[in-house]
Amino acid sequence: YRRLRTKETRLSRFNQTEIKAMLGSYTKVLFVRDPFHRLIVTFLQGMGINPSFSSFVQEVLDSGMHNGGVAWEPLVSLCRPCLVQYDYVVMFGFLRQELGHLLRRAGLPAGSLLPELTDSQVQWTYRWLSEQMFSELSAQQKKQLSHFYRWDLAAFPFSSSFLSE
């Protein structure tokens, strides 16, 4: 799209006609991850200053969506799936399978470009981590997190998420 060479990168900087033309000229891929897994990764990467996962989650809940970081903000508010019609939604945990399909559709060799870990290893690891971290949370925190991420849980098929249980 012609105006992409400008410094403006946010869609909100463009008018509706330009946004429609711009989005129509690209293949749009959205990568999504279980919001609870996103919290775990953020915590493990040290982005939370608290020593326990429970206190980190409380920090997230206290700061909310408006004062929090992109690392834990609900996906629906970041990527606007109701406004942008994505061509593909790729779920973390199915990357090898879905990326292979996308690469083949783009005419690229899928085999050599895919990550080494298998999807089942990734899913098993996150299931184990989720169980450990979820057990640290109070019933109130679990309820608040489910409410905080309710639109993500409704918009994407995170059926095995601890937050949807």
TrEMBL record:
GO (cellular component) term, any one: Golgi membrane
Pfam families named among the record's database cross-references: Sulfotransfer_2 (PF03567)
Matching InterPro entries: Carb_sulfotrans_8-10, Sulfotransferase
UniProt GO molecular function: sulfotransferase activity
GO BP terms, alphabetized: carbohydrate biosynthetic process; dermatan sulfate proteoglycan metabolic process
Membrane topology: Single-pass type II membrane protein
EC number annotated for this UniProt entry: 2.8.2.-
The keyword Aminoacyl-tRNA synthetase belongs to this UniProt entry's keyword annotation: no
Domain of life: Eukaryota
Annotated family: Belongs to the sulfotransferase 2 family.
PANTHER family tied to this protein: CARBOHYDRATE SULFOTRANSFERASE
Protein name, per record: Carbohydrate sulfotransferase
Annotated source species: Edolisoma coerulescens
Upper classification of the organism: Eukaryota, Metazoa, Chordata, Craniata, Vertebrata
